[in-house]
Automatic annotation (TrEMBL):
InterPro entries: LysR_HTH_N (IPR000847), LysR_subst-bd (IPR005119), WH-like_DNA-bd_sf (IPR036388), WH_DNA-bd_sf (IPR036390)
Gene designation per UniProt: cysL_1
Species this protein is from: Streptomyces rubrolavendulae
Domain HTH lysR-type: 8-65
Claim: Secreted is one of the keywords in the record: no
Protein family according to the UniProt entry: Belongs to the LysR transcriptional regulatory family.
SUPFAM superfamilies on file: Periplasmic binding protein-like II, Winged helix' DNA-binding domain
Domain of life of the native organism: Bacteria
Ranges where the record places region Disordered: 281-300
Lineage, broadest ranks: Bacteria, Bacillati, Actinomycetota, Actinomycetes, Kitasatosporales
Spans traversing the lipid bilayer: none
PANTHER family found in the cross-reference section: HTH-TYPE TRANSCRIPTIONAL REGULATOR, HTH-TYPE TRANSCRIPTIONAL REGULATOR CYSL
Name used for this protein in its record: HTH-type transcriptional regulator CysL
Keywords: DNA-binding, Transcription, Transcription regulation
């Protein structure tokens, strides 16, 4: 038989210690926050479990038996050990809750996370946040290695080994400098034309590249890139300079489109929408600050 069947639970032991302090079952019941009948039932249950009488009840109060006094000494050690255990566990929670490691793909890190982290700071001002930005594959690797508590990715699906939830929707857009011939065309670009044109692209492993590859696979796949760059900022700079058309999140190019440094090129017949996801290692949902950031990102 396991110890859980032979040793009284902590609540019963705390009640026995309260009886020893007060010499009264009624006052002991009030201290632990239960009724006197419930306290009497708990003492009787503990006596049956141990096979000895612990408390003598009389009109003058409740007195521990000799066996009850001995059990009380043992109970005190168990309760003190439980308090030490709880204090240690709280220290671990405090240490966990004092930091948050976030990994995010480029678009989310640059255009969405700053607002989420400002909101988190208002709720948890004592939490130190570190952010690592990379492509979606790099985010997955950090989470699986235990080097991040929560991640955000832009790919087509949740990476292997992770669980996730959609927090936002996004759309890729084709953009070009105003001087590029595509900026002046009247008819939308077709998927085949987009696939066959060398573009300024993000690298393999990025969520942007995954979505674009998937959208054009039925049209012959992407032509060899004009340039392949590892950051959204670099892709934008190349497109603004007139190097060639680029494909980026509409979140990333809103300012350039508004200022006419870039022009959106309509595309017809290609699905360039995507989901933005929060992800974590397969298993229980994140706790502590990671749970709060997840809630904030979903709400916003």
């Amino acid at each position: 038989m396991s110890l859980t069947h032979r040793v009284p639970d902590l609540g019963a032991l705390e009640l026995l210690l309260a009886v020893a302090r007060h010499g009264s079952l009624g006052r002991a019941a009030r201290e632990v926050g239960i009724t006197q009948p419930a306290a009497s039932g708990r003492i009787r249950s503990m006596e049956r479990q141990l096979g000895v009488a612990l408390v003598d009840r009389s009109p003058r109060g409740s007195r521990l038996t000799d066996a009850g006094a001995l059990v009380t000494d043992w109970a005190r050690r168990i309760v003190e050990a439980a308090e030490a255990f709880d204090a240690g566990a709280q220290a671990l929670r405090d240490r966990r809750d004092s930091r948050l490691r976030v990994a995010a793909s480029m678009t989310i890190a640059e255009y969405l996370l700053p607002g989420w982290l400002i909101a988190l700071r208002a709720e948890r001002p004592g939490t130190a946040v570190s952010l690592q930005a990379g492509n979606s594959a790099a985010v997955a690797a950090l989470l699986l290695a235990g080097d991040a508590d929560l991640g955000y990715v832009e790919g087509l699906a949740v990476p292997d080994g992770l669980d996730g939830v959609v927090v936002a929707r996004d759309r890729l857009v084709v953009v070009a400098a105003p001087s590029h011939r595509w900026a002046r065309r009247r008819a939308p670009v077709t998927p085949a034309e987009l696939a066959g044109t060398p573009l300024v692209l993000r690298e393999y492993g990025s969520g942007t590249r995954q979505v674009l590859d998937s959208a054009l696979v039925a049209h012959g796949g992407l032509a060899a890139p004009l340039m392949e760059l590892a950051s959204t900022t670099a892709v934008k700079a190349a497109a603004v300079s007139g190097a060639g058309p680029a494909v980026l999140s509409e979140l990333a190019v809103s300012e350039e489109l508004a200022s006419r440094r870039l022009v959106e090129v309509p595309v017809e017949g290609a699905d360039l929408r995507r989901a933005l996801r929060a992800v974590w290692p397969t298993g229980p949902r994140p706790t502590g600050p990671a749970r709060d950031l997840l809630s904030l990102s979903r709400a916003r």
